[in-house]
Design brief:
Helix content: 40-55%
Oligomer: single chain
Number of helices: 3
Distance between the termini: 65 Å
Mean pLDDT: 88
Order of helices and strands: HEEEEEHEEH
Strand order of the largest sheet: 4-3-2-1-5
Radius of gyration: 18 Å
Number of strands: 7
Largest sheet: 5 strands, mixed
Shape: globular
Length: 134
Amino acid sequence: MARSSRQEDARRRQELAEAALRNESVAAQVLIDEFVATAAARGLRPEPLRALLMDGTRVKSDQVGWYLNKGRTLAIAPDGRFFQLLTTGGRLARFTGVKLSPSPPPLVVGRGGRDGETGDLKDFLARVLDDYAG
């Protein structure tokens, strides 16, 4: 009986964690949608996005957008999709590029990362708008 209860508790904790991530992504998407609308209103043109392979090589991708961080490993597409640009790719990726898949956006960028580029998504989005303005 105790095992069943522990399994049920673990399943419930997992469901709560997944719901929290979904709620965070919904809130982050609101910020991203506002950013995209502001960028469009200001006439900010997206640029071709380059992905970073695990070996440190930069390659072209199938997307355009605005980079969010100095390392150019996160980006927002003009349609509001969030991309993590660190990806895998074989030798041919240097010639053919990579196809990116969007990720659920976080409210806190770089959470748990060690590269020093962490903070609230809203601050990263504001910085992009400021950088393009200047």
